[in-house]
Design brief:
single chain, alpha+beta, 434 Repressor (Amino-terminal Domain), four-stranded antiparallel sheet, 9 helices, flat
């Protein structure tokens, strides 16, 4: 509460010192500054600055914002903002009231009825449990003697069943992912280029094995498909390292199941993997067996692929030549069978 001491007309607080509001106004007027100027500097509305100067704390916002306004105003007037905040807290009443336990007629009524409610819930639960137990006991049958008084004589005289003999396990069928080609009889020449009637011709067998083609089931690293004849594909996760002759690492990666690496042609390098048995080798897109060594020269794999490609080309050329000769023979036979004019 503000009061006057002696002949000093300025209001003072309970500790005998001047109030904060008049001190703020006196400092502002001494510096020749207006409320509008200080409001622009502190970003505090003019009405709040005027309320602070007049010690009218009723229009101020909550205590947290008001304390910030006091600190900003004192700092703008080059006053001690901490002292100003402490004086503001002494002079302004704190209307904060801590939360109290719930009281009132409704709460007291709930407290009074709580034991009855709990007892009622307990009675209902016991009744439900008792009813279920009674139902189970009522449907339980006592053990009954067996209707089969004795074993029939026919059962006792019957011979024991013969023991089924099992042979050794049969080998698994070969791994095939592509069905064997079917050649329609009479169309061997048109479909395969081989005339079955020609001497020494070997027709295509419908049961000849077909190699498994490369199936990308994950990421494929390395060079494009047109620049590679060798593919290494991981059946299970494993590390693949490719080293140059000077021991430089050209490729190193942990391959997941189904990931593959396309090897470039004419590259002098060594394929290194301590889990080499987890990799399948594909030459010219067809399965060629697993990787057989921990360190395999890439030139060896590329050489096998090139040899296989030459064999395929030679076979295709032989089939084409056989087809050409068969057609020429048929044309000659047809020409000889025509009647002379």
């Amino acid at each position: 509460m503000a009061r006057e001491v002696g002949s000093d007309p300025r209001p003072v607080d309970d500790d005998g010192g001047p109030l904060l509001g008049p001190e703020l106004r006196r400092a502002r007027e001494t510096q020749g500054r207006s409320l509008a100027e200080l409001s622009s500097q502190t970003r505090v509305p003019v009405r709040y600055l005027a309320a602070l100067e007049q010690s009218d704390f009723s229009i101020l916002p909550n205590r947290v914002f008001s304390t910030g306004y006091v600190r900003a105003y004192a700092l703008a007037l080059s006053l001690d903002e901490q002292e100003a905040v402490e004086r503001f807290r002494r002079e302004s009443p704190d209307h904060y009231v801590p939360l109290q336990a719930p009281t009132g007629v409704a709460f007291q009524e709930m407290q009074r009825l709580s034991p009855k409610i709990a007892a009622g819930v307990a009675v209902i639960v016991v009744a439900i449990v008792g009813w279920n137990v009674f139902q189970r006991l009522g449907h339980t049958r006592a053990p009954q003697p067996s209707d089969l008084a004795s074993v029939p004589a026919a059962w006792r005289e019957a011979a024991p069943p013969e023991t089924l003999a099992l042979g050794p396990p049969r080998p698994a069928p070969p791994d095939q992912t592509t069905p064997a080609p079917y050649v329609t009889p009479g169309l061997e020449l048109e479909l395969t280029g081989i005339d079955p009637a020609a001497p020494g011709a070997v027709p295509l067998s419908p049961t000849s094995p077909v190699q498994r083609a490369f199936n990308p089931r994950g990421a494929v690293y390395g060079v494009p498909a047109a620049a590679s004849q060798v593919i290494l594909q991981a059946r299970r996760p494993a590390v693949l390292v490719v080293r140059a002759p000077d021991d430089r690492v050209l490729f190193a990666r942990q391959l997941a199941e189904g990931d593959a690496w396309r090897a470039p042609m004419n590259l002098q390098a060594v394929v290194d993997s301590n889990a080499f048995d987890r990799f399948d080798v594909y030459l010219n897109g067809e399965y060629a067996g697993p990787l057989t060594a921990e360190k395999t020269p890439l030139a060896q794999l590329n050489g096998r692929a090139a040899q296989q490609a030459r064999q395929i080309a030679d076979q295709a050329a032989a089939r084409a030549e056989a087809a050409r000769r068969a057609m020429a023979a048929r044309a000659e036979a047809a020409s000889a069978s025509r009647p002379m004019g």
